[in-house]
Structure formats: structure tokens, C-alpha cells
Amino acid sequence: MTAPTELEKTKLTLGFVALLDCAPLVVAREKGFFNKYGLSVVLSKESSWATIRDKVSFGILDGAQMLAPMPLAATLGLNGNKTPMVTALALSQNGTAITLGKELFLALSQHVTDWDNDETVGSQFKALIKSMGRKPVIATVYPYSNHHYQLRYWLKKHNISFADDVELVAIPPTKMLENLSNGLIDGYCVGEPWNSLALINQSGGLLTTGYRIWGTQIEKVLGVTAQWADENPLTHQALVRAIYEACEWLSQSENKDELIELLSLPPYLDRSANLIKGFTPPYSMEQRFFGNEVNLPGQQQGQFLLEQMQACGQLSDEQIDLFSISKQVFREDLYREWCTN
């Protein structure tokens, strides 16, 4: 792949949140993939997904690492300014988990011997929280996220009411472990490295993973506004191609140690990345960064996410063409044109 000529814009600012799956953006910058495509990119670490949403919506950021449901929610005007957005590249699959605080996990462990038996885990967890005398507080990163939907899906599967049995709150990913360690929350659903760090710090234990709940699912995407994409088509193409090549670099096992070194740089995850070096959690989170089945922003997956919004009451059940909305936002056509030819 070569850089498109006469880019409309060469200096870009992209937002990210300090998670392992910001890796495609970090690698694209640090390994020169952005430069290869004629782009000078500043990566801006943001404190929360709401900040990412607002800064992209108002043009402060050219684009960002986003939770897969975010561009759909923004396009529909859910939980913020209505701003049509698109994604032509998925950055990652999977990589999420539900972690319980140490006290709750130890109490559950007294009744669970086979953690692979989800029915037993769910029924014992339900019995445990019924005996607590209060609602356990469980955090997710953002209302429009796989984390929120996976947690609710798992609770509902085990007949645990998210209205009566638990209290759901939203906390930025980087604040999860601190709140768990201080006992301010009883558990969380978040992406890596924050589940592994809880295990390493002995602050909690793994309940289940997003992969166990849903199987393979798109997790993060590159999001830009539809207006930005229309005004900067060649720049958009160069941006997608550069990050796509970074994703390919990530798929090569010989680059694993160097990736940790890059993520450990102060502008990114800092020392948090080094802490998980060599650590293997008890259940694989199946996080992946490269392949057509990974990087394609699939319209069926987009429709599935819209259905989760409906199931949670975030999106009305009135007549609405979910597939058309997904097709508008999840641009399979651009991905196929730019990354598979």
C-alpha cells in the first residue's frame, strides 16, 4: 500500500483512552506507519469516553479510538450531541472481562469449584448477592459500550435484576482499579490491562470474560465524524491504511515485547503496561488486532449492537431500520476498497 497523493490534511490529532487496545494508534505513530502515509499525528490521551465523544463531535479531535457502539449512538443522538459518525476500520476484537473485588470474589469462591460452569457461577453469584443485605455496585466504562451490554446480558441470563439486585455505575477505565481497591465498587466490566492488574495486585478475581459471554465481537473502532470523512477522503484513506498496517504489525508474535515497551512510554499506559508483561490471566480474553474478520467494521455486528441498545431501553422499539443505520455508520465498503485491494 502506498500513500494517497495530495492529502487534504496532514497534521492530525487522534484521541485514545489508556487501554491495551489503543495499541494500533500507538504502533502507527511510534513505528512510522503514519509518516509512511504522509501524516503527522499527535495522540491525545483522554480521561473518559464521554470526553472522546465530545471532542470528536466538536472537531477538537480529528478522530479517535472508540468503543464500537459509540459512533452508532452519536449518529442517533443518544446521550449527547447528535453527530453523524462513521468507522471504516475496526481496531480490535474482544479483550473485556468482569472482575469482582477481593471480598466478593473470595465469598463466591467458597461456593464455586468449576469456574467453567457458567450456570453454576451465575446461580451462586445470584444467591450471594441476595444474602449481602445491599446491592453490590458494579461499574462499566460507558453506557454505550460492549462492557455495559455484556454485563447486563450476563446478569439477565442468570435472572439477576439490574434494577433490583445490583447498582450499575459508569467509571472511566483508568479509575476502575483504584475504586475497586478502595472498596468503593464491588466489581467492574472493563478492557485490559485493568482486569489483569486487579489479579496481579490481588485486588480481585475474574468472574468471566466478554468472549465467554458473547463469543467474538468487535470491540474498538477508529471513529470520525461523517463531515470530517466527507471533507478529507484522501486523508481518511491514508489514516485507515496506516493503522491497518499497524494492526498487522501487532499480529506478529515477535513484536510482543516491543509492544509492551511502546505502551509503557509515559504518554500511553506508562508503568501499567510493564506490570502485565509475562502475565497470563486464568481465562483467555481472545483479544485480537488483525485479520479481515477482525478489522472489517461488519454491518451485522453494528446491527447487533443497536439491538443491545434496544434491549437496554436506550433506543426505542419503534419502527427503525437498524441495518440501514449500521450500514451508514459501519463502512464496510471503504474498508474493502482501502484495505483489501
Structure notes:
It is found in: Endomembrane system. InterPro entries: NrtA/CpmA_ABC-bd_dom. The chain is of the alpha/beta class. The protein folds into 2 domains: 171 residues, D-Maltodextrin-Binding Protein, domain 2, CATH 3.40.190.10; 119 residues, Periplasmic binding protein-like II (D-Maltodextrin-Binding Protein, domain 2). 45% of the residues lie in helices and 16% in strands. The strands form 2 sheets. Strands 1, 2, 3, 4, 5 and 11 form a 6-stranded mixed β-sheet that branches. The protein has a 5-stranded mixed β-sheet with strand order 8-7-9-6-10, with helices on both faces. β7, α7 and β8 form a beta-alpha-beta unit. The relative contact order is 0.20.
Q: How would you concisely characterize the structure shown here?
A:
The protein has helices at residues 23-30, 33-36, 49-57, 70-76, 102-109, 118-130, 146-157, 173-181, 194-200, 210-214, 226-231, 233-250, 256-263, 271-275, 292-295, 299-311, 322-329, 332-339, and strands spanning 11-16, 40-45, 63-67, 85-86, 90-93, 96-101, 137-140, 167-170, 187-191, 204-209, 218-225. Helix 1 packs across helix 12 and helix 12 crosses helix 18. With 341 residues, the protein is an alpha/beta fold.
Q: What gap, in angstroms, lies between the N and C termini?
A: 9 Å
> How big is the Rg?
20 Å
CATH superfamily of the largest domain: Periplasmic binding protein-like II
Please state the average pLDDT score.
95
- CATH-defined topology of the largest domain: D-Maltodextrin-Binding Protein, domain 2
Main sheet: strands, sense, barrel: 6 strands, mixed
In CATH, the architecture of the largest domain is 3-Layer(aba) Sandwich
Share of residues in helices: 40-55%
**Spans of 5+ residues with little confidence (pLDDT < 50)?**
none
- Based on helices, strands and strand pairing, what is the structural class? alpha/beta
The first-level CATH class name of the largest domain: Alpha Beta
Can you count the beta strands? 11
Element pattern in H and E: EHHEHEHEEEHHEHEHEHEHEHHHHHHHH
Strand content: 15-25%
InterPro entries: NrtA/CpmA_ABC-bd_dom (IPR044527)
Keywords: Cell inner membrane, Cell membrane, Membrane, Transport
Pfam families: NMT1_2
Organism: Neptuniibacter caesariensis
